[in-house]
Amino acid sequence: MNTPPAKTQWLPERLDVRSFAQASGQMSADAPLARFSRLVEELSETSRPEMLAGVQWHAEGSLRTDAQGAAPAVWLHLQAKAVVPLQCQRCLGPVDTALDIDRWFRFVADEATAEAQDDESEEDVLVLEPVMSLYDLLEDELLMSLPLVPMHETCPVPVVMQASDPGIGPEDGDHRAPHPFASLARLKK
């Protein structure tokens, strides 16, 4: 009696990408936000990562040959979604920011090959390591997808802009610091 082969258990912390691609492996998970320490550092100061929704991700490996029929290359398709609270640069309150990742990675033998092919490729070209952390790659992609200047479309509180708000008069907003050498001028007399 033939028994079906046991399904391979893939570990995202220590993933053999070549074996994963050869097996056309797939993984999905909902990882807690606290797992991504560098991403947590970017969150609004008032947020608590353990209270937030996690990062939903899916990874799929495959082997593909190119048009010239060369040896099959190792590919990884990574998708992820998360909503993270960042600090609005206008009102300084938390702003929920959706992150959506859909990236393809092709793996090559060495760094020189990766550098030479990365500029002319639509996909990211990475060096094939014996074991890699899928979570580190995922965190890198999440960090790169953060907006440079997070802001609400419309802030939930009125924002006072001193430089352009006609509601602020010189007596309200003109609190200038004294000139640093003002006390020296008095000593000179």
Automatic annotation (TrEMBL):
Arranged from A to Z, the UniProt key words for this protein are: Ribosome biogenesis
Q: What Pfam families does the record point to?
A: YceD (PF02620)
List the InterPro entries hit by this protein, alphabetically: YceD (IPR003772), YceD_bac (IPR039255)
The answer to whether UniProt assigns keyword Mitochondrion to this entry is no
Region of interest (Disordered), ranges: 164-189
Check the record and name the PANTHER family matching this protein.
LARGE RIBOSOMAL RNA SUBUNIT ACCUMULATION PROTEIN YCED
UniProt record similarity statement:
Belongs to the DUF177 domain family.
The role this protein plays is: Plays a role in synthesis, processing and/or stability of 23S rRNA.
Would you tell me the protein name for this molecule?
Large ribosomal RNA subunit accumulation protein YceD
> What species was this sequence derived from?
Hydrogenophaga palleronii
